[in-house]
Amino acid sequence: MKSNASLKELAGFLKAAETILIFTHTNPDGDALGSAAALCRVLRKMGKTSWILMDEEVPEYISFMDTEFVTRDKDCLKDHDVSICVDCGEYGRFPALADKFDEGKLHLCVDHHATGDGFGDHYYIDPSEAATCQLIYKLIKELEAAVAEGSDAATGLIDKTVAESLYTGINTDTGSFQYSNTTADTHAIAADLMAHGIDHTAINVKLYQTIPMTKLKIQASILQRAEFLFGGKVAVGYVTGQMLEEAGAVLDDAEGTIDMLRNIEGVEIAAFLKEKGEAVKVSMRAKSYANVAEIVSVFGGGGHVKAAGCTLEMGMDEALDAIKKAIGEHF
Ligand code: 5GP
Ligand code: MN
Questions:
Q1: For residue 147, what pLDDT is reported?
Q2: Which of 33, 130, 248, 277 has CA 20 to 30 A from 183's CA?
Q3: Inter-axis angle of helices 160-173 and 30-45, nearest 10
């Protein structure tokens, strides 16, 4: 836990503000978008002017989520009262918008990533939470309490749409409540969100049962080329532009491939490398005991003990060698 403010104090700063710009990490996932979307909708219900600023399109696989207040317009707010970064606690994870984050008068952060030393003026970073959406749920409870202070009005800020965003983020960051980060608290929050009338079956169909055929084709191609090292304990897969072209797929289709590799019998560490322009984006996962955050830290990456990543500024062959060497040294 790395915090210099309580969620109650963060709620106080948000309540006092009028204009709030929300940021998250590049290549947003369900937890990043869910956290931002839920917070933004709640702030608007409180009468605030608030937007989620991104510098890219929302990835197709999570585009069913609440994106009403996502904008790419850097001028949507100027000299705003608060910049708040969710599911992200370092400039390196949203470099294109760092200057806009700084432009806010006060800088807040709510995150659950273990790496980094705190971020912004006031931050609440708790790596024991499975998803930032759990923290945003708790922050909203503090906002409800703050709004209720000195008023008799009903203070429920979580509606069905907010609940859907939070549920989706918790669902994706826990691998449908499977990963070891799932706690009793995770289920308690999910239960409360379900009580708000969300259609969890529809969400799960959209997340897991709407796989495009092109995705299966590229996964087959990746699996065919994957290497299994250290007696099958390590799986290393990769995707290149040429492989995508041959499968008629796009890079988004390779999303989730890392789980396929990690799920294979006997695999403890899975690494997946994606060619992205001149660089290679690396994802790494551990199943039971390995610490992949430690492995990627030698490349300046980070994340969690069992799910981490980094970017290597090199070609695919060189990157594959570097990653295999780093995993070997870890073993
Ligand atoms: P993914 O493999 O899904 O991209 O990322 C897994 C986890 O590692 C996520 O929590 C993500 O935020 C983190 N992560 C991925 N890439 C990087 C990176 O380059 N730097 C840092 N600090 N964290 C990363
Ligand atoms: Mn997250």
A1: 93
A2: 33
A3: 160
CA of 86 to the centre of ligand 2 (A): 9
DSSP 210-240: ---HHHHHHHHHHHHH-EEEGGGTEEEEEE-
Q: Which of 251, 189, 258, 261 is nearest to 34 (CA)?
A: 189
What distance in Å separates the CA atoms of residue 182 and residue 170, rounded to the nearest whole number? 9
Query: What are the residue ranges in the chain where pLDDT is below 50?
Result: none
Question: Token pair for residue 30?
Answer: 């369900």
Q: Is 273 in the pocket of ligand 1 (CB under 6 A)?
A: no
pLDDT of residue 150: 74
Q: How far is the CA of 230 from the centre of ligand 2 (A)?
A: 30
Provide the token pair at 329: 């040294």
State which of 93, 109, 111 you would mutate to test the pocket of ligand 1, scoring each by most atoms of that ligand within 8 A of its C-beta: 93
Q: Which atom of ligand 1 is nearest to the CA of 88?
A: 12
Please measure the distance between the N-terminal and C-terminal CA atoms of the chain and give it in whole angstroms: 27
Counting Cβ atoms within 10 Å, is residue 71 exposed (0-12), middle (13-18) or buried (19+)? middle
pTM of the complete model = 0.89
For each of the domains in the chain, give its residue range(s) and CATH number, in order of start.
2-206 (3.90.1640.10), 213-330 (3.10.310.30)
Residue 153's pLDDT is: 67
